[in-house]
């Protein structure tokens, strides 16, 4: 499972889900350096997380307005420019400030109203002679604020703003001391499930799992900092056809398998490859492995013990990685949902959604030719069965 799937629900509903699944790709590659020094970069770390505060019509209580905007830098600037725009073009009614981040070359933020205003007021006997003049007026009419270090006008009236580093330092210090509740909007959810990392038992973790682990842990930390109750879930691949193959191979190599130590079994990745090669080349072994899956899913004690032994070897190696990264998760693998699958299938059957097809039990979906297999022809379950139970 490598990619985020986000589902937000109201507080009264079940927990929100942030799931890194195996079926899609997360188009996210932005990173923020811990050594960032640019004012715009530093403030974006804070302001991107917040929504614009509700606008107020008052132009005389700037301190109150900034309190309403709290941690949102862009919104605080919008309040200042709202006052300036009212003074600059008093006959144009309420004008929404167009505030955007700009490159470090020009400043930290930019007001882009001048050109649009000029197109409205030219020919109306205005005192201005073009967008640059409108921009100069917007700049000159800005209320004094400790958050602004300097302003300049560039091109066709763009008003560039350089933020005060002293103000930023004091603001961030205040945020950290007073806590998030004093400056950020309350998140819309009380509890969230973050499903991440999710490696496969008996296989090495690869860079995709590392990516998922880091992004998932970051999301979890942000939510926890925002006072959300976070359930960190590690949906490991600890169930399925591969375990029949691994268990049968374990029985062959170690008839008294419970006496086999991790050292005796050796590299579990090599053990997996050897069992897969045997599975692909030996039809009799393949048949035994397939039956082993059914017996495992049926709860036979011998197969459950062998499965648990294999899982524990992998789990030990995974924990070394998590410990090194400082990441903590609660394992809820595919096997966790196995006891719930029969009840889910029964419920779907009673609703008339499950049908027999070529010995398997499937769900036909309108408009899709290939059905969803929920019980295989040999009686075993698959990913779809597990996912339905998890949902």
TrEMBL record:
Ranges that cross the membrane: none
InterPro entries: aa-tRNA-synth_I_CS (IPR001412), Arg-tRNA-ligase (IPR001278), Arg-tRNA-synth_N (IPR005148), Arg-tRNA-synth_N_sf (IPR036695), ArgRS_core (IPR035684), Rossmann-like_a/b/a_fold (IPR014729)
The Arginyl tRNA synthetase N-terminal domain, residue ranges: 75-163
Keywords: Aminoacyl-tRNA synthetase, ATP-binding, Ligase, Nucleotide-binding, Protein biosynthesis
UniProt catalytic activity: tRNA(Arg) + L-arginine + ATP = L-arginyl-tRNA(Arg) + AMP + diphosphate
One term under GO cellular component: cytoplasm
Pfam families per the UniProt record, alphabetical: Arg_tRNA_synt_N (PF03485), tRNA-synt_1d (PF00750)
PROSITE patterns according to UniProt: AA_TRNA_LIGASE_I
GO MF, one example: ATP binding
One of the protein's GO biological processes: reproductive structure development
EC id: 6.1.1.19
Superkingdom of the organism of origin: Eukaryota
Record family assignment: Belongs to the class-I aminoacyl-tRNA synthetase family.
PANTHER family in the cross-refs: ARGININE--TRNA LIGASE, CYTOPLASMIC, ARGINYL-TRNA SYNTHETASE
Protein name as catalogued: arginine--tRNA ligase
Source species of the chain: Gossypium aridum
């Amino acid at each position: 499972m490598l990619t985020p799937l986000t589902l937000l629900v109201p507080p009264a509903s079940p927990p929100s889900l942030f799931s890194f699944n195996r079926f899609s790709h997360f188009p996210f590659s932005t990173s923020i350096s811990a050594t960032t020094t640019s004012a715009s970069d530093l403030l974006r770390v804070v302001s991107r997380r917040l929504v614009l505060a509700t606008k107020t019509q008052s132009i005389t209580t700037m301190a109150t307005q900034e309190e309403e905007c709290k941690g949102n830098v862009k919104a605080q600037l919008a309040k200042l420019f709202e006052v300036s725009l009212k003074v600059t073009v008093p006959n144009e009614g309420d004008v929404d400030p167009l505030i955007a981040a700009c490159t470090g070359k020009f400043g930290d933020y930019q007001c882009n109203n001048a050109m649009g205003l000029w197109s409205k007021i030219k020919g109306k006997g205005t005192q201005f002679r073009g967008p640059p003049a409108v921009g100069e007026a917007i700049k000159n009419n800005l209320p004094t604020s400790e958050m602004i270090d300097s302003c300049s006008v560039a091109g066709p009236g763009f008003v560039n703003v350089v933020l005060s580093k002293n103000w930023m330092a004091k603001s961030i210090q205040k945020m950290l001391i007073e806590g998030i509740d004093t400056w950020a909007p309350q998140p819309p959810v009380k509890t969230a499930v973050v499903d991440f990392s999710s490696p496969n038992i008996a296989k090495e973790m690869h860079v995709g799992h590392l990516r998922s682990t880091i992004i998932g842990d970051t999301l979890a930390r942000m939510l926890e900092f925002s006072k959300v109750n976070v359930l960190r879930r590690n949906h490991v691949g600890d169930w399925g056809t591969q375990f029949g193959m691994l268990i049968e191979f374990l029985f062959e190599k170690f008839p008294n398998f419970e006496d086999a130590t991790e050292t005796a079994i050796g590299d579990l990745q090599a053990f997996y490859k050897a069992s897969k090669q045997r599975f692909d080349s030996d039809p009799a072994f393949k048949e035994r492995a397939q039956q082993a899956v059914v017996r495992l899913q049926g709860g036979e004690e011998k197969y459950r013990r062998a499965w648990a032994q294999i899982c524990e070897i992998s789990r030990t190696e995974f924990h070394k990685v998590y410990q090194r990264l400082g990441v903590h998760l609660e394992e809820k693998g595919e096997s966790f949902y196995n006891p719930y699958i029969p009840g889910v299938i029964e419920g779907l059957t009673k609703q008339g959604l499950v049908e027999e097809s070529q010995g398997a039990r499937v769900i036909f979906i309108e408009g899709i030719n290939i059905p969803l297999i929920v019980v295989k022809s040999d009686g075993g379950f698959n990913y779809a069965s597990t996912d339905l139970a998890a949902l």
